[in-house]
Amino acid sequence: MRVVTRKTDLVESLAIVNKAVSSRSSIQVLSGVLLDCMGEVPTLSATDMEISLRAPLAGRVEETGSLVLPARILTDIAKSLPAGEVTIEQKPGESQVEVRSKESFFSLHSIAPTDFPQFPVFPLEQGFEVEKAAFLQTIDRVAPSASRDETRPVLTGVLIHVSKNSVKMVATDSYRLSVMETPIEASVADKVQAIVPARSLLELSRIGASNPAERIHIVPTSNQVLFEVGGVRLISRLIDGQFPNYRQLLPESFDYEVVVDKAEFLEVVHRVGLLAQKSAPVRLRFEPNTLTVAAESQDLGRARESVPIKYDGEVLEIGFNPEFVVAGAAAVDGDSVVLRFISPLRPGLIKGVADDDFLYLIMPIRLTD
Amino acid sequence: MFGYADEVSYRVIAHLDLDAFFASVEENVDPSLRDKPVIVGGGERGVVSTCNYIARRYGVHSAMPMRTARRLCPQAVVLSGDHRLYAQYSRRFSDILDEYSPLIEKVGIDEAFVDLTGTEQLFGPVIRTCRTMQRRVQEDLGLSVSVGLATNKLVAKVASDFQKPHGFTVVRPGDEAGFLAPLPVERLPGVGPAMLSQLRDRGVVTVGDLAVVPQRLLMLSFGEVGEVLARRARGEDPRAVTPREVVKSISRETTFEEDTTDTALLESTLLRLTEDVCRRLRRQRLEARTVTVKIRYSDFITNTRSRTLRRPLDVDEAFFREVLDLFREGRQRRYRIRLVGVGLSNLVPRAWQDDLFDQELPLLRDLDLKLDAIREKYGRNAIRRGAAEE
Fold first, then answer.
1. Would you tell me how many other CB atoms lie within 10 Å of the CB of residue B254?
2. Would an 8 Å CB–CB cutoff place B365 in contact with chain A?
3. Minimum Cα–Cα distance from A243: chain B residue
């Protein structure tokens, strides 16, 4: 097998697929990247069995074939090579792979490609397309609320619901919940629903953001889903299970409502939140015309800051994890943020002023003994 | 250290044990008690928590039922004890030790291990440092403390007990086994009445007797405990002095007066222990994710089982079902059970983060806080859940 590419193209394609290279797997082949030059366009693939990524590699195939190289060292080599052409070649009957560029010469031990997991074949014609920008924006605003704790797998996923004219995503780590419904044109015949690992979606967002394509092709099957954007394919396993009934978690009414300036609120909570370490909360105290944000950590000290607000209701003091507050307010579209509460022990809601499409529900932290 | 210059490979560990702690504090408060027998105890458990040395002459000792103690020494002054005051004294005791080493491990309220390794450069010879600590506890707190100094925790502890009260015993490196050998075997920590009678049946009276029993035989009789026992008999103890500030786990266990197969008793005991460890967890403002249940059978075979919650919590209710499940899964033999224990680990600072999927959590926290307040005031057993009754 022999392929000639350029340093920049090799580095770029590797950067895409490297996110699927397994970092801790004991299965050696999963720490490798598959360079496939059997078809017209050479491709690079990697998989950690949860996500598989395949990206085209710009270059010309001079001799067909495929090989697997350790991703880590290949990436380090590619980055360090001088600009210009790079040739990757495996001579027939040899296990060594040569990587050459100008006067540089590397001979690497390769991994047997027969062990590399087959990239699943998807019936592309059965999928549908959505508009990229709106889909990715929905991911970016919802997926960060998913749990990173594997003890409840279903919460590490995002519930996606696609219909002809909208996509809805829901994610929760059981401390906060994000829901967003985005009007979107989808070439879908019927409704489609699945729980996709948040990690896969955030990966898709990363790939999609650096890609000029305008649409994403999606092919769901019973246990996997394929996303294709600008020639890059991401295949993710789906999460099996029952997503919690989030609708019943959304309170029907709230007793307190405050509108704050988004930029100022974010800044103050972030600043005061510096002293809310080791699970300590930030305290939000709403009183007529003033919001006071305060935090205290035993080992560090205290912080407090007041900002003028338009509010004439009763005094309310409520505690939150500052990270969750910041994440919720930052995900709101527009210059102002609406905060709604019921009591210091009931969920609060963060949303935009004229925007009911995105809702962020957040559970408080108990403040008093 | 120990006056030799070149033995840098040893650790130097002191064990300080306050003599008749509660009674001595009471004597400080009311000096007229000094020449009378004083017993502190009664209350919730109906046993002696401590007594002064005069009472001990009448045969009274800690853990003895109150009724027996009163019979042996009818003229004794019996006090129910002021635990807040004892805690204050205990803190001042630690504050003194803190000045001599960063590695202090408090054991209960009235003992502490101090790792003095390498402190000579700051404070001079270790023996002198120990004398200073003993003198300061006497002068600053008006309390007598016994000191044991050795190369490990086990020997230091036995040494502090060697010449109580106000003892000062130094066991030099290499002398550990020789120091322990003539002592009765029950002086070794971990040798309780049941094990003692089994050992006596085999003709083991002193630690020296135990040291010559092959480890293999001890393991046959006592399981994994046997291995530890063999090591202790040789005066070896690899445990490090671990400062209490980094609490890694909170646990409590109970040895039954008589080994039992009574499921109701076993389960209510486990729930009581769960209440106790959860309360300690809350006191330390921590939350736990992992709960462990320990079962020791009459033949000393011990089974432990753990489970990890999906999130850290500090409410009793969160651990009850886990504890019972673990016990039911873990109890796989028909043997009588000698001991059960409950431990919490995977500890994190308390967050009190409420949960979307557990709307009862704030109510359970309210309940626990109210129960804690009652117990703080009236004692641990003042209020118990029905299922955790004694």
1. 16
2. yes
3. B357
